[in-house]
Design a protein that fits this description.
single chain, about 80 residues
Amino acid sequence: LDRLCPDPENNPLEALLEEDLRSTLIEAIDDLPPREKLVMGMHYEQEMNLREIGEVLGVSESRVCQIHTQAIARVRSRLKQR
């Protein structure tokens, strides 16, 4: 029965696809321009909000939002190409 009904949480195909997506995402972020990469890192890794990032970079919160939006668009474009 175990061989006929594999554990749905342990699906090798899903694990492979997830790993492929993860590596593509990492490459896409690594290829971002330095400022966009910095904003992404501060926002997602350091969990800073846009206002805090703006204070660090010396720009307005709205400018940080623009940089973030541009970075997300670049990453999405890269993911669509895969």
